[in-house]
# Entry
Amino acid sequence: MINSINGKRFRAYTVLFAMALFFIIFSSINAQGPSDNNAAQRDVINQVSLLQGLTFGDYNGSIPAARLKELGDTGIGTFDALNGELIMLEGIVYRAAFDGTIEVVADEETIPFSNVTFFDIDEKFQISGIDNVNALKDMLDKKVSQTGDNRFYMVKIEGVFNTMQVRSELPQTKPYKPLAVVLETDQTFFDYENIAGTVVGLYCPAYMSDLNAVGWHFHFISDDRQSGGHVLNLSAEDIDVSLDRSDYFAMVLPDNEMFNNFDLTIDQSEDIKKVETGED
# Structure
């Protein structure tokens, strides 16, 4: 009888030990696997369509803002029918409209082109004496060269800007014209002085020339959420820079007749330069 009881106790202890061992192993796997996976999911630049498609005139929204929020919390882009400039900051999608106003975009609004990521600061520093946007790019390029020219970077630049020149666009109607043509007549410009806000920027390496604009692309939104747009020029005394390096890249391609029939072998480098900088 005693041996039977001891045998039952032994089996019970064996079962409890096995359960405890399973729980420890499962917890270890769960702690290591998903965290690594989540880190990879956060460390990715998610791009909607090609800038070259947008340049050709594909302003057809392909994913809703709600889906974009699942791909990142910080980024830049535009909206269906080219209806303003997109700035995503802290998970909120803003539109800088053609009249210079800012609005929070509904989840149902669709987006033809964008780049977003989950922003995790890899490096933070301050820069001073920025006379123009090219000086800012040069300083950021020096930082990028130290950590890897062939990586992707999202940047947030915060401070009071002595000057800020931005642009936006009037919403378009079909049949859509190429973007360079639209910007000849349908873009609006806004100049601000001593304005506090955040520049959200993306850096793409040189090998991305067939998918996006190489180098830096900046959008701005003011702290009071009243002003913003695509940055053409700026100046500042002291600004705080937060840099997020990304080692992964993913793309969501649109599925519409216009995009599917583009000849994307055509060189659009001059149009892209004009679109990005406003220069011929």
